[in-house]
Amino acid sequence: MSKSSGKWRWVKWVFIVPILLFVAVQLYFLLQIWWWVGHNPGMTSFMREQQSALREKNPNANITQQWVPYNRISNNLKRAIIASEDANFSDHDGVDWEALQKAYEKNNKKHKVVSGGSTITQQLAKNLFLSGSRSYVRKGQELIITFMLETLMDKERIFEIYLNVVEFGTGTFGAEAAARHYYGVSAANLSAPQAAKLAVLLPNPRYFDKHRDSNYLARRTGVILRRMGSADLP
């Protein structure tokens, strides 16, 4: 074997194999999303991560989550989450580029990733497949999954899955579990104030699960209540 052929083989291993692995991972994500167009997800990446953390303290611990269809979730909660998390959800292609630019500028000022500028679709991409870590590599993968979701699913299906898998507190996932955990009612029967407060929990649900009477929650809930009327539902 000549030195040149040996060098080429080394180049193939270094460059081609990682590319093939990357493509295989993306194909896995794509097939999963295609399946979820007509089937409901089970455990998400975030759920598995949280359950594993809970079981370090209690081997019998489990997360709480109960799937409910889109029409059995209060429109109050849908409007509150859109008003709080992603006002342009019904109109954008999965990414709010202006918000992303602002997050990038904020991260540059802080010299670290402190803000993601994520839409509801991006949050769902992260919750389904990724972790809560912050890096530009993870953000890039999140964007790829986001475009897959927006390509294969309509907005209502994206929002339905999001409402059923998003984390609302320690071990509490989805609208039904959250409504019963915080208020003892079903997701269908959430009032506007209750829905607004649940939406405000989302950026830091485990913290606010333990600090439900904070002044910030009260102020922010009032803001979201005022914005809910203008929220467009998919």
TrEMBL record:
The UniProt catalytic activity note for this protein reads: [GlcNAc-(1->4)-Mur2Ac(oyl-L-Ala-gamma-D-Glu-L-Lys-D-Ala-D-Ala)](n)-di-trans,octa-cis-undecaprenyl diphosphate + beta-D-GlcNAc-(1->4)-Mur2Ac(oyl-L-Ala-gamma-D-Glu-L-Lys-D-Ala-D-Ala)-di-trans,octa-cis-undecaprenyl diphosphate = [GlcNAc-(1->4)-Mur2Ac(oyl-L-Ala-gamma-D-Glu-L-Lys-D-Ala-D-Ala)](n+1)-di-trans,octa-cis-undecaprenyl diphosphate + di-trans,octa-cis-undecaprenyl diphosphate + H(+)
Q: What does this protein do?
A: Peptidoglycan polymerase that catalyzes glycan chain elongation from lipid-linked precursors.
Its predominant location is membrane
- Annotated Glycosyl transferase family domain ranges read 62-228
Family according to the record: Belongs to the glycosyltransferase 51 family.
Q: In which pathway does it act?
A: Cell wall biogenesis; peptidoglycan biosynthesis
Please indicate which superkingdom the organism of origin belongs to. Answer: Bacteria
- What keywords tag this UniProt record? Cell inner membrane, Cell membrane, Cell shape, Cell wall biogenesis/degradation, Glycosyltransferase, Membrane, Peptidoglycan synthesis, Transferase, Transmembrane, Transmembrane helix
Q: Which organism is it from?
A: Duganella levis
Q: Show the stretches that span the lipid bilayer.
A: 12-37
* Xref: Gene3D superfamilies: Biosynthetic peptidoglycan transglycosylase-like
Q: What membrane topology is given?
A: Single-pass membrane protein
Encoding gene (name):
mtgA
Name the chain's protein.
Biosynthetic peptidoglycan transglycosylase
InterPro entries found in the cross-reference section: Glyco_trans_51, Lysozyme-like_dom_sf, PBP_transglycosylase, Pep_trsgly
Q: What class of enzyme is it?
A: transferase
Q: Where in the cell is it found?
A: Cell inner membrane
Q: What is its EC number?
A: 2.4.99.28
Organism phylogeny: Bacteria, Pseudomonadati, Pseudomonadota, Betaproteobacteria, Burkholderiales
